[in-house]
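[09:14] KT: can someone run the structure on this one? pasting the chain below
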Amino acid sequence: FLSAEESVGVPGRCAVIDLGGGSMEIVRATDGQVTMIASVPLGVVAMSERYHQIDPMPKSEHRRLEKHVRRTLKAALPEDGEPLGLLIGSGGTIAAVAALIAAQRKQNLTSMHTFEIRRAELIHLLASLVHTTAAERSVMKGLSENRIDIVVSGAVVLDQTMRFLGVNELIVNSRGMREGLIIDVLARERGVDVTADRMQAARDFARECRADPRHAEQVRRLALELFDGLKPLVRPEPGDRELLEGAALLHDVGYHIAYERHHKHSYHLISYAELPGFTAHELSLIASIARYHSGALPKARHEAMHDLTPSDRERVARLAAILRLADGLDRSRGQRVRSLHIEMEGPRLTLRLEGEGSLEVEVHGAGRKTDLFEAVFGVRVLVCEAAGRDDSSVPLAVRWQMDEDDPEFLTSERKD
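[09:31] RB: done, structure tokens below
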């Protein structure tokens, strides 16, 4: 991806693939920010050994290989309804296919770098390739000797990948993986570590876990807006804002494991993550904060709280209360809330929401997630739309009540 970014450019929504002998690597990105990484066992050598044992390739094996590629991609890649604007490909087989198409165009090129492969031309090339023998392919202009036995399967994989991704053109990056490694090494030698930015490291990890980046950024924005607007109530410690920001970006990574109990999965994933810029203690706090964005309220016996000091438990509870409320404010995951009006009047906190269209879902979602906030800060939270509604007509926050049979909250000593 670094090589494609440097050599070709990766604007808008794009994907980068590298087709090797044992596997194919796929990276999706939006405006240069990686959103998905996958490695699929569709390498050209492996596919040739499995489906191209008879030359020419039998029609039945051709169809089996096509079906196998589609099934493998469907199982490995999350559904993404938005179309790609660009596909970039690297690897020897992709360069070989490009050379064959260039020969058909009667173009005498010294390099395939930035050559455009049109899927229509690839389909026509494939229609002839599958009927050829190795001897016939050996005299094809542009095809090197080490690609004769694997180019047919490689062309099938490439064709089905373009079909699956919904693109009609691919730009060849002839520099590929080795240039990417060189770029990475040089950057590190110069002291420029692309993951040195703590929040960028958090975003990168969230993308690896396929978390929804738009929801995460919206929760981050709203959580920080609440934090900044309620400092007299929150009484933050140094570093609290960064802990909250990190937890907001990472709170949903647990969906990568399972939908059920995803908040607990988030806790474990963050706890064991290697995020440059964060200390082990900070990651422990961030994991605990993220754990309580959903589910039960904090208790000392919980795994996420058990090993923390009493002061850290209080700290986690304060920041988790804000995160929990911010998450409710994007209940629809449509990023509809554009701004918050925070009004503090005695023991009553009113949040008036402004945004696009009806915010009824967001009002309801936030109202259901005020429980921890009310318990920690001792205030009543009301959530409503700002557009001239009377508070009485809007669903109010569901207030948390202590279970008399289990009064433990935060620490075994605190029962208020």
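[09:33] KT: thanks! The CA atoms of residues 314 and 410 lie 7 Å apart.
[09:34] RB: yep, looked fine to me
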